[in-house]
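dumping this here so i dont lose it again. seq + smiles for zinc ion
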Amino acid sequence: MKIKLLKNKHRLLVFIKQIKDYIFPIYCLDCNKEGDWLCEDCYKKLDLSGRFFCPVCHSPTEYGECCANCLEQSFLDKEIAILKYSEQEIIGKIIYNLKYNYAEDLEDLIKKIIIEFCQKNSSLFTEATEIVLVPLHKKRYAERGFNQAEIIAESLAEILSLPINKNLKRIRYTKQQAKLNKKERAENINEAFALLGKNISSTIILVDDVFTTGSTMQACAKVLKEKGVKKVIGFTLARG
Ligand SMILES: [Zn+2]
Ligand SMILES: [Zn+2]
């Protein structure tokens, strides 16, 4: 009986997807072929080998750890990114559509990318016991309806079987970082976050969509360290 119900539910979901695809066809973000956000051929073009650089000076390090010269200026202990960010490349189009076209159903593609990366790099996250995501201000969350960092964090949490702690909040409404230079970004984001509650793990993974200068991630890591977190591992889908 249960199997029959599940089969019917599956048929219904397939049927709903067929109708949705008919009314709102999806085209590959790279080659425009109809069917998926990224067709199989274009997916194969993604380099998922990972981007491992010091979060401060951007010099290459083995697992994205902070280099010895920058240790004192960094609240992030590591920064692990999957793809090289470029506005014109596939990853730029994925993030643009996620942020500005409300394409929440890109989630499946993002999860596929994270699964493949984690299978090849499973040892990178073994010490972490909790996931924290870079929050949006509630006003921006209301405009957009979802937080792109949350979509990435949820996929990672499922793959690594780790809980998500959502107590990090954005307490100040800030200008969008993309339009600012490095110095302006650091000033803009300073004192923008706060961690509510007392319970937080000692080693956490901090998740965002893109790592550019690192000022947002550093501001979040600073708050976490002030509340007793010992190690913060940054994780982003892409890094500029
Ligand atoms: Zn394609
Ligand atoms: Zn460095």
